[in-house]
Amino acid sequence: MLYYLFSFLDRNYNIPGAGVFQYLTFRMAMAVIVSLLVTTVWGRRLIDYLRFKQVGETVRNLGLEGQMQKAGTPTMGGLIILLGILVPTLLFARLDNIYIILMLVTTVWLGAIGFLDDYIKVFKKNKEGLAGRFKITGQVGLALIIGWTMYFSSDIKMRQEVKLPVKYDAPVSYHLKNGSPVYTQDIKSTKTTMPFYKNNEFDYGKVLKFLGGNYERYALMVFMFFTIMIITFISNGANITDGIDGLATGTSAIIGVTLAVLAYVSGNIVIADYLNIMYLPNSGELVIFAGAFVGACVGFLWYNSFPAQVFMGDTGSLAIGGIIAVFAILIRKELMLPLLCGIFVVENASVIIQVGWFKFTKKRFGDGRRVFLMAPLHHHYQKRGFHEAKIVTRFWILGILLAIITVITLKLR
Q1: DSSP of 161-226, one letter per residue?
Q2: Phi, psi (5° rounding) for residue 127?
Q3: Which of 106, 161, 210, 301 would you call most buried, defined as having the most Cβ atoms within 10 angstroms of its Cβ?
């Protein structure tokens, strides 16, 4: 909103300094600052309100050290994160940008599903919360919206080098690259980025090439499948990771910084051309959303780090996982998520392995056996006697290393 206000003032009244809102970096910095203010200042009030309303966490006794001391800690703190994201984005981003619209829809959509789950747990006294099938349905529904919009919207394109004569009905641009002429067009495409690969572009439309014939007609189906899998897996991965104080929040902040860098270089034609990566017109606006996301996570971490004064609940964990997944899909970097979100992947995998091995051995040998002392993985380390703060610190260091490697892969061709 402020973007439009100051653009109007600069255009019609030439007020000194009003034009600074045209710069992405300035608006991103403002989004971070406002997000931090919203989460730290308003967050304290919400925590007091939740405590007054006795919206406390119900803790099952799993035999973990210090676990029962957390009983009664206010939950549904994800509302702090959601507000910390939405307020700065609405203030500083261009609200007519399709990328921003999709990120706002994602935030509200998954935040509402998580809120409903927490509401059932807290106020309906149902420990199971919202049935898993309804969560999955909500995540799949969002994935269908994102995939369909990206595939058909004329506002979502990528700039691609072409050779004359061109085969796409789109304006042709010309520039020199290393002294050689290059022709480009902004076209719709199902291409994405493939890390650790010489020619790092992967086309979903060619997955079924082995079928022969007009295989490209199945591109939408393949793209939708990958979109659904990525959003559901990463969203649930963040949900599972949110098991000890500050783990999911801190990890998400690290991932958010990395996504902000990736969004900036993908939306900047000069840097994208230098790194020889996809240039996505108008996607640079996502940097403002990323700034708000990082600010919200860091601000919430003030209250969520050990010992936690509030838990985010599914209101926050489902939303931040979905935000990360959709953001990566929009900037065509979703195939980097197994590396960037390695902690979410490992946590998710530990549960799958534990449950799968237990069922297999129970059927095969008559008694269920376990790979880990307890799943997900962070509880395994707790069972081994590691303090929560030490576990979180080690996971954060791992997250930073994975983020650095992810950024480096942009130049590995």
Answers
A1: EE-SSP-SSS-EEEEEETTEEEEEEEE---EEE-TT-SS-EEEGGGTTGGG-SSGGGGHHHHHHHH
A2: -65, -25
A3: 106
- First-residue to last-residue Cα distance in the chain: 40
Tell me which residue has tokens 């056996």: 369
Tell me whether the omega of the peptide bond preceding residue 338 falls within 30 degrees of 0, making it cis. no
Using alpha carbons only, give the angle 108, 113, 114 rounded to the nearest 5 degrees: 95
State the CB neighbour count (10 A cutoff) for residue 116.
Answer: 17
Under a CB-based contact definition with an 8 Å cutoff, are residues 115 and 315 in contact? yes
> Residue 397: which of 293, 254, 291, 259 has the closest Cα?
254
Q: Per-residue pLDDT tens for 208-263?
A: 776 666 767 788 899 999 999 999 999 999 999 987 888 999 999 999 999 999 99
Look at 178 and 330; give whichever has higher pLDDT: 330
Q: Which of 152, 151, 113 is nearest to 227 (CA)?
A: 151
User: Under a CB-based contact definition with an 8 Å cutoff, are residues 183 and 164 in contact?
Assistant: yes
- CB-based contact 238:324 (threshold 8 Å): yes
Kindly calculate the radius of gyration of the chain based on its CA atoms and give it in whole angstroms: 23
Q: How far apart are CA 32 and CA 359, in angstroms?
A: 46
Residues 70-83: tens digit of each pLDDT = 666 888 889 999 99
Q: From residue 378, give the alpha-carbon distance in Å to each of 87, 330, 346, 348, 389.
A: 33, 30, 10, 11, 11
Backbone phi, then psi, for 217, in 5-degree steps?
Answer: -70, -15
Max CA separation in the chain (angstroms): 80
The C-alpha atoms of residue 117 and residue 115 are separated, in whole angstroms, by: 5
Residue 395: its H or E element: helix 388-408
Q: Are 290 and 259 in contact (CB under 8 A)?
A: yes
Task: Determine how β-strand 191-193 pairs with β-strand 180-187.
Answer: unpaired
Region of 313 (left: φ > 0; alpha: ψ -120 to 50; beta: rest) is left
Question: Token digits for 46?
Answer: 């919400």
Question: How far, in Å, CA of 406 to CA of 338, rounded?
Answer: 10
Q: How far, in Å, CA of 192 to CA of 334, rounded? A: 8
204-216 per-position pLDDT tens digit = 888 877 666 676 7
